[in-house]
Design a protein that fits this description.
The chain has 212 residues and is an alpha/beta fold. The protein has helices at 3-14, 21-32, 49-61, 99-108, 122-128, 144-154, 179-190; strands spanning 40-43, 65-68, 115-118, 133-138, 158-166, 193-199, 202-207. It is built from seven helices and seven strands. The longest helix has 13 residues, at 49-61. The structure holds S-adenosyl-L-homocysteine and magnesium ion.
């Protein structure tokens, strides 16, 4: 491993967010391995942790990583919910704002030319998107509606031969919520994907045909 990559892995591990080191390194590994042309896109960037792992690979492969998030937090990040972090609330508006943290992380990583922030609502951006993606990482809202909307909005944008990664897939309901697992089942059940890898709650699939 070269010094730059070691530096980026250290930085990603220190960044706040929801991505264990082994899963982050698997993200990086599979992103380095992309088999087709086109940019990468992640849904759900939060403070930039996964974007550093994916961005490191995008830089090596000469791709852009579009990092999509409205930066207002998911339902599960709001006050009173399990994954709320009070210091992410902007005191002037009372809303969560993770964009300054995201920008700081990507700036510190020296990835500003590779990682392009898309600040907006995922289904609205998906509707306007037409560039075929070589890699799609889904880690946005984990409620039933947001997860299925991300699947329906973004999976059709993934090129044949492209890599689909889904985070927080828990086959056993004791371990976590259902929607990411449900969309993984949709992908596998579509017949358009091969299973490539599983690390923790990260699932890696390869598109073999059109379809969702
Ligand atoms: N990948 C991140 C964690 C993402 S948490 C990491 O490595 O730490 C989920 C993110 O999805 C939150 O930041 C939330 O703001 C975003 N999100 C939820 N629903 C969204 C929507 N409809 N459009 C855009 N972003 C959304
Ligand atoms: Mg996640």
């Amino acid at each position: 491993m070269d010094d730059r990559l070691r530096h980026l892995f250290d930085l990603a591990e220190d960044a706040r967010g929801f991505m264990p080191p082994d899963e982050g390194r698997a993200l990086h590994h599979h992103a380095l391995d992309v088999a087709v042309d086109g940019p990468f896109l992640e849904v759900g960037s939060y403070c930039g942790k996964s974007a550093v792992y994916l961005g490191a690979a995008a830089e090596s492969r000469g791709r852009l990583l579009f990092a999509l998030d409205h930066h207002r937090g998911s339902e599960e990040n709001q006050p009173g919910w399990e994954w709320h972090e009070p210091d992410l609330v902007d005191p002037t508006t009372g809303n969560i704002d993770t964009l300054p943290h995201f920008r700081r992380t990507i700036g510190e990583a020296g990835l500003e030319e590779t990682v392009v922030a898309l600040v907006g609502d995922s289904p609205r951006v998906a509707e306007a998107w037409s560039t075929p993606l070589s890699l799609l990482f889904i880690d946005g809202g984990h409620g039933a509606e947001p997860a299925h909307r991300d699947y329906e909005g973004w999976v059709p944008r993934l090129a044949v031969g492209g890599t689909l990664l889904i985070h927080d897939v828990f086959p056993d309901p004791v371990d976590g919520g259902r929607p990411p697992y449900e969309i993984w089942c949709r992908a596998v059940g579509s017949g358009a994907f091969d299973e490539v890898d599983a690390v923790g709650s990260l699932r890696v699939l390869r598109r073999t045909a059109e379809g969702t």
